[in-house]
Amino acid sequence: MNASLLSYSIWIPIVGGLLVLVVGDRRAALARWLALIVSLLAFAVTIPLYTGFDTHTAAMQFSERVAWIPSLNIYYHLGVDGISLWFVLLTSFLTVLVVISSWRNVQTRVAQFMAAFLIMEGMMIGVFCALDAILFYVFWEAMLIPMFLIIGVWGGPRRVYATIKFFLYTFLGSVLMLVALLYLYFHSSNSFDLLVYQHTPLGMTAQLLIFIAFFVAFAVKIPMWPVHTWLPDAHVEAPTAGSVVLAAIMLKMGAYGFLRLSLPIVPDASHKLAWLMILLSLIAIIYVALVAIVQEDMKKLVAYSSIAHMGFVTLGFFVFDSVAIEGSIIQMLSHGFISAAMFLCIGVLYDRMHTRNIKAYGGVANVMPIFAALMMLFAMGNVGLPGTSGFVGEFMVVLGTYQVNPWYAILAATGLITGASYTLWLFKRAIFGGIVHPEVAALKDLDAREMLVLGTLAAFTLLLGVWPAPFLDIVHTSVQHLVAQMAVSKIPA
Amino acid sequence: MNAFLLHWTFAIPEIWVLIMACVVLLADLYLGERLRDVAPVLTVLTLLGAAVLTFFEFGQSGTTFAGLLVMDPFTNVAELFSYLAVLMVVLYSRRYLLDRGIYRGEIYVLLLFALLGVMVMVSGANLLSIYLGLELLALSQYALVAFNRDSLVATEAGLKYFVLGALASGLLLYGMSLLYGLTGTLELRHIAAALVNVTSSNLILVFALVFIVAGIAFKLGAAPFHMWLPDVYQGAPTVVTTFLASAPKIGAFALIIRLLVDGGYGMLESWQQLFIALTLVSLVVGNLIAIAQQNLKRMLAYSTVGHVGFLSLGIVAGTEAGFASAFFYTIVYVLMSLAGFGMILLLSRAGFEAERIDDFKGLSQRKPWYAFLMLIIMFSMAGVPPTVGFYAKLAVFQAVIAAGYVWLAVIGVLMAVIGAFYYLRVVKVMYFDAPEPESGPIVRDDFASATLSINSLALLVLGIVPGPLMAFCFYAMQGVI
Question: Which residues on A lie below 8 Å from B390 (Cβ)?
Fold first, then answer.
């Protein structure tokens, strides 16, 4: 069982998704229940990954390696370490919540909707587990197809524009990565193994070119300024569940790519171009946060805030400090919970009012007190208030950055202030104050299903904020290993 | 037994197909209208029989008929795939032809003769036999394109194809004659040996190569020799278009392997340059012009030009792995276009061709299963994993990077992104647009529908386990250099 846990984590949702597809849209209730069972089962098989994880080693665990395409020397090679483990769990966990949260508010083509999410779950887990370059790329690209359909079929009015933009942006980003991976193949004595790439000596020019190819792929996905413009469009048009997966998991893949590919494979180029990455991260933290303040659309606001928060993540990577990198990973995890929760909260409002315009709200707290309380918690997490998960990650990143260069830390810290301003202002306008619109007065508070979803996320936000030790324990050894690895130049003497 | 007939058994599949083509012709002539179904059934049996005969010849190699024909792994594998391609066309064809009143036995006879032409090209080891195979294929194709003689567009397409095709054959023949003049032999292996003593700057040789490459490029549909392709693809009855995009491409690929690799590998550097140019122009022209198309058949025609550009990347690499990946790409392309045109066949009905992209509007609501299949086909053509189209591109990129042409691979991937746009547009109209009110019913056709399902799902299944097919193609190219 243990030996093929990762395969189960990947293939149970995919096969389950196909089954849901077979059930068909006409039997919507059955499709929903089957989807829930599959997602729970998929979550259940990822739990032993955590309980059986050895925190004392940076080596890959639960490895599987089978020849897949022998003609091209491609292997079906999977494994997790401290860096990827949390994202596997996050993905399987959030998919359960996504299925529950879409229970009522998706009424058209239900089976196709659920199937798309389940299949996508398997592919996303595949990205986090793949240790073969081509396998990684296959999952990375294949994931676009379900997301393309989710935005395009169940999205808002401008969904076609948004989804084609999303697809082409990310596709363009990733094809260059493919060229880089193929190039690496010939410099690592014909291997596609990502772990072998990590020990392949490379000259500076080659490293720089590979870094740039990777950078394009990952920067689009994260997204980093200035290639972030697809994200607000995609978020605004995507259905709630699509936004949740996009913000909570897909954005993390770009960051994960930096950790798994860029930093260990081309460390010298990473050092050399760190200034650029830090610059772009700071622009995301400061400028994009300012852009977020002026948004009228709640989803757009949270989308821009996501970009700003991912700025902290990339900043943490490129100061090459273990505290900062650990902070970045915690920040990714925390953002996975909080952004998911923020989008779900907006979804709750949207389901009732069918608008996301902040001006249409005001005084929601009067009629939806439980909702307001929960959203308050997530807003505080988004701000980075101590006691919530948002604080831990951002604090560690700033702390780590300060040791390297105080100026970076000071600039990054201003992001905490702007973050507070856009989040709290949104909250004040939408939730507090008196009731202006009669529609708001008629709102009903959360039902049990919504409470379950948001309550679970609230619990994790608090848990990670108050007691981050178990999360950090998993990450620690692998990050230490990564930092040690990066300190050694790979340029052949 | 005299030397001429030594190993004559190597030609058994060709002989079988020839005899059976005549049998189908006569049987159909005497059985007439009522028993028309005999012709396709016999054709299917012919193909299955040929597959069995070829299967028994696996592992043998050598030449026969005094070096006119050769048997090697490539011959066997390419012939098997050609049978498969023709088989799919036959399975798709019946209702479409019936609806248009052109369900006649001759079409199957012509398909078999065209197949025979492909087989001779694939197994040709002599300029003469290769040219004969090519002409047999081409003449059958001209007749097939104009098969619906009452259709103005089809007749025009047929004539256009004939004039341009004859020109291309002429170019190729002229190139061959120069090669013969230079080396004094028609047999490819002797040509290869004779070319060792010829410097690559020899003007006659350069002329010969240019003409031969131009002829091949025409048959393949590589830009700038692609101008016949959109008109012919659009004008021909869709069954014929389906065929044009299948087995003949394997034949055209065989021209490269036989003429340029078996015969002219010593001149690799000379013709490699030509192929780099062809690749670049095809990639750019095919993918950019396809964006502007409103007619799906034309779009697929330009996409063919783009695909030829991609497969030529493998040829440019000039290594065994490169040829193998180009062959793999060819096979995958054949499977994809069979499915793509098969879809058009299936959605068409009497008096209506589902050939505009708009005809696919809202297909996911009218017929979700077909929309899903078309989704797989389009993503496969775009080269998005987990479909087999991705591995085809992967293999050629890998080969071309191995040969040191990283910049070509970069251009290739960028063109793949542009290509993704117009394939996505088809997915877009199927899934995101509402059906047009005037779009009529989809005619039930269980037979073609099952064929299409298998064909399209194969693209997905081969995408998840591409290993065996790729290994098969690599086996075909073993020792080709």
Answer: 138, 141
